[in-house]
Amino acid sequence: MSGRQIDRGRLADVVLAAVVGALGTAVAAFDDDTTALDHVLVALASAALAFHRAAPRAVLAAATVLGTAYVVHAHPGPLSALPVLGAVHTAARVGHRGVAAAGGVVFLAGYVATGPGTQHAAERAGLLAGWFLCAVVTGLADRNWQAYLRQTEQRALEAERTREEAALRRAGEERLRIARELHDSLTHSISIVKLQAGVAVHLARKRGDEVPPALLAIQEASGEAMRELRSALQVLRADEPAGTPALLVERARAAGLAVDLTVTGDERPLPRAVDRAAYRIVQEALTNAARHAGPAKVRVRIDYGTRNTTDHATDRTGDRMGELTIGVDDDGAADPARPPVPGTGLTGMHERVSALGGTLRAAPRAEGGFSVRARLPLGETV
């Protein structure tokens, strides 16, 4: 539950207690036999309702004791049962049916025992018994309705998750199909071009002729195209990242890049989509640092945030998580006055983060160098 929802719930509880207290006080004011003690008992019984979310059984006990003491002392009318009715309803709403019924019975017993006139007291007690029965029934109905809403929400989440998994599976199959098509068509054609250019260069050199610059350019371009095509095919065929951000840092160090890794927060398994996106973001950031930062130092920071296991909205125990924060900074030659033109790598990072509902900032730092900041929401797991 968010802070705003909690504040609204508390405000509603205070308003409920105030309304019940105002009604009880107004009714008591018309009774000439009402004393200051009676007003205190009504006020305390009503004020207890403000805490029914945090301690429903304690609120029921307090309202029952105070309300029974009030009717025993002042012999008021049926409206004196309002604080106890509210406590019975809220207790039944959270599942304490037996305790709620017992509270109603105790109050009714006190009301009947001190009522003026047997017939009159019996009539009022019957009326109040109906009210208490309605309070218990409506509380149980509200509880069942909330459970139904949670189940419906869970089914919707499951359906959404199934749709996402199906979409990911179809996307993976489409990537493999594209990879096959590229391999079967472009790879063959480029290989022929490269082979023919290589044969022509070899024959020219064998005859002692000068190799035309255009022919050398074709040979070099076809070789570069083959390498780029192989890299693209590897990306298309790799659905899952082969490692972790820590492994990427180790590889970068082995390649000669000065990298420091800092991990903070409650480290834990991540949702698959978030884990894959985090790996690709760190991978692309380290690749860009190696290409463009020169002999620079790189700092990688991964913050898992703090785990909070209490769901105040439903009094259930779950695993509500915040967001994963990724930061990759280098002290290279990037200049804020000359921001880089976003290439395929930066565009891909933005697309991955946006697809998960996160935010990404990739830009030169004011003190020099380049900075990548990504925030990925982790959602909720059960």
Report what the structure shows.
This protein has helices spanning 3-29, 36-47, 56-74, 82-93, 97-114, 118-207, 213-237, 245-254, 272-292, 344-355; strands at 258-264, 297-303, 308-311, 316-320, 323-330, 359-364, 370-377, 380-381. By secondary structure, the chain is α+β, with helices and mostly antiparallel strands. The chain is elongated. Helices cover 64% and strands 12% of the residues. A hairpin with a 5-residue loop joins strand 6 and strand 7 (370-377). Helix 2 (36-47) runs antiparallel to helix 3 (56-74).
Q: Gist?
A:
The protein is of the alpha+beta class and 382 residues long. The chain contains ten helices and eight strands.
Would you tell me the overall average pLDDT? 76
Shape: elongated
Whole-Å distance between the termini?
A: 15 Å
Rg of Cα set: 36 Å
| Structural classification | alpha+beta
Q: How are the strands of the largest sheet arranged?
A: 1-2-5-7-6
Q: Tell me the strand percentage band.
A: 5-15%
Order of helices and strands: HHHHHHHHEHEEEEHEEE
Show unreliable segments: 309-320
Tally of separate helices: 10
Beta strand count = 8
Helix content: 55-70%
